[in-house]
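Fold sample X.
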Amino acid sequence: MQVLPPQDVDIHTYSCYNDYKSSTGGQVKHNKKLMEQNNLFTIAQAANACGISRATLLRMEGEGLLAPVRDEDSRYRYYSTLNILQAIQIYNMHRLGLTRREIRPIVDTPDEIGSVIEKLESMRDNLSTIIAHLKKRSLQDPSEVTELLQIPETLCYIKVYELPGGRYDLRQYLMETISEAVQAGCRLNADRGPFMRVYRPDLAEGQFTPGLYRYYFCVPIRSHPKDCANIEAVQSRQIVSVTWHGRVTDLPDRTLTLAEEARGMGLTPSGWFHVILVLLNAPADMTDERSQILQLGCITE
């Protein structure tokens, strides 16, 4: 019975391989001399050393990311120690979400990896944020963290609500806006969390004035259909930010003190506030306070 060739092996090569198998009684005899002289390993040995499958090694070769040695007679693959180290590195980069196009410069032309470095740094920062949030959820770090941040410009799907300037369920409106963005065909930006912005000059001045205010709920996206409405690029702004684990109903009181902290740092509150609510695999009833981390930002001039 003739086994079908792997997808990444051309028919001519595979025909030679089958002829070689036939001449050796159906079994491939490894070129031990070649292996010993060049310190090479079989695909089974290489796959075992890397902790990955043979199919993964073949896929790397098919993508042009890995070049094992080929025996001229049998066309059998042999892997050097360098090949094994490269395979491990390529596999780890695949796991991080890098594409073949992004990995290739790392393998071929290290002087052209600036964009890859930027992406990895962004992923590192995002991972650091997730770790910090998880620590707060597990109450390993119950403290508040106040810092000065630069929020980058972000393309968003935006929905505006007119709400009373008091206590309300921030989660409800964020979830509704996310649902609408998905229904509209938007591709969400996994590197940026949904947020809300509101103009409250009363809070910036240290007082609370009852009334209706326009709350802008923003869902970061990567792309959207051409006819999609409610799309806007939210401009980059500097904020004094505080992050803590707890109840969202603490928001109005904490906003007043954050504006005071901004002035204490020599900054001028603009009247705009930026709120990020992180939901960490929240339970079905959404009432478990451990499932939410709140980041409140006072946008400054």
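Fold sample Y, listed below.
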Amino acid sequence: MNHHILAEKSASLTQRVSGGRYALKFAAGFWAVLAAICLQSCERSPFGANEIKESNRTIHGEIKLFDNTSPEGVYVWLEGIDVGTTANADGSFQLLLPADLNPNDLARSNSSLRLFFYMANYELLYKQVVINNGEFVYNRADVTKNGQLTPPLALKRFLRIKTEIDPPSVRENYAGILKATATFESPGDSTTLLFPKAIGGMLGAILLRNTDTRQVFIYEAVPGQESIETMLVGQAPQSRSMTFGIAQQTLPAGKYEVIPYLLVAHENLPAGLLNSLGRNVTALTPNYLKIPFRRENAILEIVQ
């Protein structure tokens, strides 16, 4: 009898313990599922599609040239943050904000900024982007929810630059005179050109860039000249020339682009854009070639 009572009590206790364990397991599972739901919910933006995410430091887009020439080298520059990139041969580009923006940049970045597209002899255009706390805000201004700039832009050329060289081919030991001529046309409104180091209506300097090695050689019309001349270019072609010799510098055999030294007076060029391309890019140094132009450059061939 006593053994029977003890057995019943033991069974009852086992059922209660088992039920308690089941309740505990159920409760633990419930809270785990709830936590997972909360985690997923928290990953979604409480503010909608404009939420900043880790990937929002990057935007991408496409730029074209209206005359269907290659847009490679078009400079893409973000005003205020002073960060830039260049377009590829197909016009695509990607701009990445630095991860370590300084406090001044962050202060300027909590607003709408202009993203410029620059080729020196093409019109200057820009898109509007919104930045907050050092990251792009997607689905605002000209940026889609996927970080794409839209719609694509096409820059229109306002200045044609064409160079000629005579003679076009010489030997390495050539001791004669070369004549470089640059011709300019502005199909739309007139354009103001600046010619540093120029005198008497000539070109002030010529740069020769090896098409293979990219080595640069510089020749001045009057060495040491520190003047500057301007020229207003319209639809009628206008030319400037310069004669020079190559005997004072040894030019290795090869082909060289003939590049005139000039600057374009852009009315709306923002302060800081040229400086962001490199140090002293407007000076007569190889850095001048960092300014993006689309020229029709003559080729000088040096043969052995």
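Sample Y note: The chain has three domains: 1-44, 54-155, 160-303.
Also: The first strand starts at residue 58 and ends at 65.
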